[in-house]
Amino acid sequence: MITTLGFDEKFTIRFLMRHSEGSRVLYVITAEPMEERAEKALRNVEDFVRRYLEGVELITKSVNPANPPEAIKAFKEIFTKHPGELFAINVSGGMRALILELVTAAVISRVNGHLEIELENFRGVVRIPLAAFTTPPPGSEEVKILKALAKVGGMAARELSKELGIPRSTLYKYLGNLLNNKLVKSVKYEGRVYYEITELGLMFI
Asked: What does the alpha-carbon distance between residue 27 and residue 23 come to, in Å, rounded to a whole number?
């Protein structure tokens, strides 16, 4: 878990409540020099973790957002310590420059996981998979496949080929690319293979 922290700890605490199960490390990203309000917010987060999240290690990382290369380097070092792990990255609080640098480091490092941010009215959380920043955009024929799958929910290759007028051999090539990029997924039902669009795939149509 990684979270940016500004002057208000409530975003970080709600983030912890959403992700505490199974997570053992929390990185709290702050801007330096730290202002008094940010120091108070950090103390409140530390107190919450100590009281309610036994076994979670809290690590504070302070960087100067006015120096993007050094800040991004520091964040990349965090990601390299946890290769292959799924990251939940909360950017609901903290300086905008700090958030931009953290996201940049995650994209450069090709981190697996997602970004999340709370809506301003506190009625929900938006999650964006990090793969959306690094996945090659599909070609025009692949977009047609994605749109067809989004419309009906799922189709077998035979139906897709007929619907789109694409030879099945060519269709399988396109589907292979879409599967590799996790824009579609395959599911078996009663001995047949069906293809469905993923949440990531929906972002490309």
From this structure: 11
Strand pairing of 125-129 and 112-118? antiparallel
- What stretch of H or E contains 115? strand 112-118
| pLDDT per residue as tens digits for the range 52-96 | 888 889 999 999 999 999 999 999 999 999 988 899 999 998 899
SS (H, E, C) 95-114: CHHHHHHHHHHHHHCCCEEE
Q: How many CB atoms lie within 10 A of CB 149?
A: 26
The pTM (predicted TM-score) of the whole model is 0.84
Q: Are 48 and 54 in contact (CB under 8 A)?
A: no
pLDDT tens-digit readout, 162-204: 989 999 999 999 999 999 999 999 998 888 899 999 999 999 9
Instruction: Classify residue 27 by burial, with Cβ atoms within 10 Å: 0-12, 13-18, 19+.
Output: buried
What distance in Å separates the CA atoms of residue 158 and residue 168, rounded to the nearest whole number? Answer: 7
